[in-house]
Specification:
Blueprint (H helix, E strand, L loop, with lengths): L1 E4 L4 H13 L4 E5 L19 E5 L5 H11 L3 E4 L6 H6 L2 H23 L3 H6 L1 E7 L24 H20 L3 E6 L1 E3 L8 H11 L3 E4 L5 E6 H14 L5 E4 L4 E3 H15 L12 E4 L14 H7 L7 H14 L1 H7 L3 H11 L2
Parallel strand pairs: 1-2, 1-4, 2-3, 4-5, 5-6, 6-10, 7-9, 8-12
Antiparallel strand pairs: 9-11
Helix pairs in contact: 1-8, 2-4, 4-6, 7-9, 9-11
The structure holds nicotinamide-adenine-dinucleotide and 2'deoxy-thymidine-5'-diphospho-alpha-D-glucose.
Pfam families: GDP_Man_Dehyd
Catalytic activity: dTDP-alpha-D-glucose = dTDP-4-dehydro-6-deoxy-alpha-D-glucose + H2O
Keywords: Capsid protein, Lyase, NAD, Virion
């Protein structure tokens, strides 16, 4: 049995679905169900005894203590976080609350539980913390990609809160001996991503004939990874990662935002010629830049490849096609998650641009 936190969000839900598709070890899934968490993501697991869902906060000691005691998981995989950079700019408080204080409280619960385990269970136990490449800051065009030894230089409230959580996880290993692993991954895309992030937002707007907002001049670079490749990397690190180590995860797919949006538009032209406005690229609109917008992220993933033999299965070309096809086939899912709170967020965030 493993305990997954944040398993109703984009990557967490993909992870739980993949985990139970490739094996039989049960999952307890603790998620607060914020705007980003959605039980529909876990619909294929309805009635599956291997999945136990619990609504709750990683910062709620009583809930987490009780879950650890009841289920005695052999590992905790921590996805729970506030994850959207633009939201962290408009309101950093929740990011500090969940990403910093929540991770701290989770670590405290896990440390108390782990310290009471018999020696064999203690030795086998793992706490895997899922983090981001944004902790390393921003690269210039000629800089080498982020490695695990690149100094932290977070630039947004989101990345600063994730960097703080990474430091806490590291400290719990060095101070208390907690058996931790940390992964720092680049931009994910794929099924079930909430349409506040670039890829699903562009698909969603394009299908509705709405402008496709490109911050600044669209030259910012991200290193894109298909979500199931992130999930397979986490499984591999959990299985064989060296305790106390961090592993960078990325797909070697550096693209400018313009390239990403143009690619999405071209695939939509091909797969969905019936949109209200085509070609979809005619909807591309340059808007005010994100404050403190990081210019470039790139991941050097040689450590995880060399030590653990992990490489991604998808190329950007194959993954992005699958993603567009998934959104076209799951417009009901998009309609459900884009009601209410989502519409308020979009009108606030994009009105200012
Ligand atoms: P997401 O916003 O889609 O999902 C986050 C999930 O965490 C939601 O289900 C939400 O309800 C839950 N949650 C939030 N606060 C919680 C709390 N206090 N207690 C319990 N659950 C809580 O995020 P995502 O994109 O799936 O990201 C998951 C993790 O991966 C995050 O830690 C993020 O920093 C990291 N990450 C994301 C990316 C990416 O490109 N999306 C890349 C690298 C790393
Ligand atoms: O690098 C990993 C990170 O990737 C994760 O840690 C974060 O949780 C995840 O949200 C993502 O952060 P980004 O800020 O890179 O992702 P986002 O999809 O918000 O934006 C991608 C790029 O596209 C970025 O340069 C900003 C730009 N953008 C974004 C939106 C939402 C636009 O030009 N227009 C938009 O409307």
């Amino acid at each position: 049995m493993i305990l997954v936190t944040g398993g109703a969000g984009f990557i967490g839900a993909n992870f739980v679905l993949d985990w139970l598709a490739v094996g039989d070890e049960a999952v307890v899934n603790l998620d607060k169900l914020t705007y980003a968490g959605n039980l529909e993501n876990l619909r294929p697991l309805r009635g599956d005894a291997r999945h136990v869902f619990v609504q709750g906060d990683i910062g709620d000691r009583a809930t987490v203590d009780a879950l650890l005691q009841q289920y005695r998981p052999r590992a905790v995989v921590n996805f729970a976080a506030e994850s959207h950079v633009d939201r962290s700019i408009q309101g950093p408080g929740e990011f500090i609350e969940t990403n910093v204080v929540g991770t701290f409280k989770l670590l405290e619960s896990v440390r108390a539980h782990w310290s009471r385990l018999p020696a064999d269970e203690q030795a086998a136990f793992r706490f895997l913390h899922v983090s981001t490449d944004e902790v390393y800051g921003s690269l210039g065009p000629a800089d080498p990609a982020f490695s695990e030894t690149t100094p932290f230089a977070p630039n947004s409230p989101y990345s600063a809160s994730k960097a703080a959580s990474d430091h806490l996880v590291r400290a719990y290993h060095h101070t208390y001996g907690l058996p931790v692993l940390t992964t720092n991954c680049s931009n994910n895309y794929g099924p079930l991503q909430f349409p506040e992030k670039l890829v699903p937002l562009v698909i969603h707007n394009a299908l509705a004939g709405k402008p496709l907002p490109i911050y600044g001049d669209g030259s910012n670079v991200r290193d894109w990874l298909y979500v199931s490749d992130h999930c397979s990397a986490i499984r591999r690190v959990l299985e064989a990662g060296r305790l106390g180590e961090t592993y960078n995860i990325g797909g070697c797919n550096e693209k400018t935002n313009l390239e990403v949006v143009e690619t999405l538009c071209a695939i939509l032209d091909e797969l969905h010629p019936g949109s209200p406005i085509t070609p979809h690229a005619s909807l591309m609109t340059f808007v005010k830049d994100r404050p403190g917008h990081d210019q470039r992220y790139a991941i050097d993933a040689t450590k995880i490849e060399r030590e653990l033999g992990w490489t991604p299965a998808e190329t950007f070309e194959s993954g992005i096609r699958k993603t567009v096809a998934w959104y076209l086939n799951n417009q009901e899912w998009v309609a459900h998650v884009t009601s209410g709170e989502y519409r308020n967020w979009v009108s606030e965030n994009y009105a200012a641009r």
